[in-house]
Amino acid sequence: MIAPDNPRHDEFLRLFTTQEAALRSFVRSLVPTLNDANDVMQEVALVLWRKFEDYESGEDFRRWAFGVAKFKVLSWQRDQGRDRHVFGGDLTELLASHSEQHSDQLEAQREALRVCLGKLPADQRHLVDAAYAPGSRINELSRTVGLGVAALYKRLHRIRLVLVNCTREVLARENAP
Amino acid sequence: MKLDDPRLDWIRLYAEGRASPDTIAELEAALSKDAALREYFVEYLNIDLALATNAILSEPCSVIPMTNRWDAHWRTAALSAAACLVVALSLIWIQGRSEPWAKIVQSGPGVEILRAGKATPATAGATLDLDEAVRVGDNGTAKLSITGLGIAVLGPEGHLQRAHEDRVLQLKSGFIGIEARKQPTDKPWRIRTLEAEVAVIGTKFGLASAAGRTALRVSEGRVQLRSLETGETHEIDGGGRAFVSGNRPTVVEASRSGSVLLLTSRRPPSARWNRFNRLLGDKLVGSRLWRLGFRVETRHYDEVQAGDLADRALVIVSLFDQGVGEAALERIRLASARVPVLCLEPAAYPTLKMASGAEGVAFGFKTGLSPAEIAQPENPICSDVELTPSKWYEQIVGWGRPGPAAEIIAHLAGHPDQAVAFTYDTAQLLQTAANETPTLAPARRVGLFLDPAVMADASSTIWRVFESAVDWSVGDPPTR
Questions:
Q1: Distance from the CA of B293 to the CA of which of A130, B104, B206, B243 falls in 20 to 30 A?
Q2: Mutate to test the interface with A, among B45, B185, B219 (most CBs of A within 10 A)
């Protein structure tokens, strides 16, 4: 374990901070819910820090971190598999491979989302903000907006689909010759 | 991808954590064979994640329209600013008040959430508000994500709640294992038991409170421990353990870090072991190991992998049907693993090279009242035992015939080579077959058989033998 005042600590923080969003997106693609992703990310961060002694400066940190995260997800799936149905190892490998290969594109998608959120009608934008606000509970929000829980879930789903398609269009325009 | 594609609804249910096992299976099959769907799936989850990050949340109060004619609008502007401030403060207050302090990540049998005096089964994903507590039964565990602290595992008999003081948890009973994030030095989380309080500095540790004693075992980092009775304060570093009991001086000792891996059978090995198997869960794990401050993880023989041995302080081999467990022990190469092993299954002795030969030679079983003799009364495993050896085995006894390098601590009366408790210290010659390469013990090994009928008595001194065997295996001084 590296002492916190070690220069490597600063290096770790710099690298981790740079890659945290990509890493979180990678983990999110492999576990069912946002809460699951948060839990796994906590453990991934701990393991990365613990194993940072094995990381050699100059090595591709993102690739190394994705590798560590994938194993953490597989271990999480094994633990969860006792009481929950989760994806098997083969599909996880496929998804991990896709997410890793397209991590730059996914980052661009997150950037493009800002544009797309700006295009949303005000009521949909407010609904998204309220649903994703920290501590928000879907059943409480459903009462506030006067929708049933199932209807609210579906409405948020439709907004997400619109946003996925919008970000695809934005990126396609940006990449057009 | 068309928006009316029914597979998108599977993705939705999956991402909401509400998909049934059938839906997940259908989605898994579809994703496995359709690359375009996989691409859409990953993008959908990426959007879901991005929406949850603070960076893209709206900032409704960040801009207050002002014009050059501010004098004409100052009242409006001031009122708007004040309103924003009130709203912001209210939101902060509401959030501070209502934000759950923990979320159940994983829940086992007998785990309950206590709300307003009522207990409801805890399920994964449930959150705990300020006045809510989580309680674990005799034979379960719960994994929690505690806001601002990290991951916690609450062990058997555990009862945990948030104190009304900021960043204080109250462990009313049982065991909690913590993997903490780095904590602010001026305001770390604190965990309080009836006897002591620890301040978390960003570390990994286990804390147990039972029978008037608090046990602390630090794996990594540093924890500050304070006795509530005497005020005595110690800083315990990784690899250390401490005990606080009433007004007695706090005991601080070096220890071996890591958790305990308990290997068990998925089903009771045979009818006659039912009782023993239950006791293993209820007493051995639930009470003794946790109370020593260890985090305990259980794996079944049919699932355990070599990787499960990493970072263990101790491996306990419990009973199995002959012909089933040996293959698992071979698969994980436990015999050559540099981790202490406490073996409760005589049939495992040959596989672990603690004895050589078949049943009747290397090990055996005998039923009925069988007195034992303590051969080494000074040995720390038995030195504090007051139980009459004639009462050690009332129903059944399993024995082993270890090699000459082993120390036989207790054996069946009249059979000095039929050991019921024996040890190999690190680097002592194990007992291999004549055609095998001689092997040195890579770490301490203990063979111990405990009669289920005697174990049924929770107050039995036989538990002291077990605790002492654990202490010796991991290199700790005897726990008293």
A1: B104
A2: B45
Contacts of B150 in chain A (CB under 8 A): 42, 46
**Mutant choice from A1, A17, A46 vs B, greatest count of B C-beta within 10 A:** A46
Give a three-class secondary structure readout of chain B: CCCCCHHHHHHHHHHCCCCCHHHHHHHHHHHHHCHHHHHHHHHHHHHHHHHHCHHHCCCCCCCCCCCCCHHHHHHHHHHHHHHHHHHHHHHHHHHHHHCCCEEEEEECCCEEEEECCEEEECCCCCEECCCCEEEECCCCCEEEEECCCEEEEECCCCEEEECCCCCEEEEEEEEEEEEECCCCCCCCCEEECCCEEEEECCCEEEEEEECCEEEEEEEECEEEEEECCCCCEEEEECCEEEEECCCCCCEEEECCCCEEEEEECCCCCCHHHHHHHHHHHHHHHHHHHHHCCCCEEEEECCCCCHHHHCCEEEEEECCCCCCCHHHHHHHCCHHHCCCCEEECCHHHCCCCCCECCCECCCEEEEECCECEEECCCCCCCCCCCCCCHHHCECCEEEEECECCCCEEEEEECCEEEEEEEEEECCCCECCCCCCCCCCECCCCEEEECCCHHHHCCCCCCHHHHHHHHHHHHHCCCCCC
pLDDT in tens, B327-341: 999 999 999 999 999
> What is the tens place of the pLDDT at every residue in A79-95?
877 666 788 888 989 99
Residue B419's contacts (CB-CB under 8 Å, 6 or more residues apart) are: B399, B400, B401, B402, B406, B408, B409, B410, B411, B447
Report ipTM (2 d.p.): 0.92
* Cβ-defined contact of A113 to B50 (cutoff 8 Å): yes
Residue of A nearest to B29 (CA): A91
This prediction has a pTM of: 0.52
Measured in degrees and rounded to the nearest 5, phi and psi for residue B352 equal: -85, 5
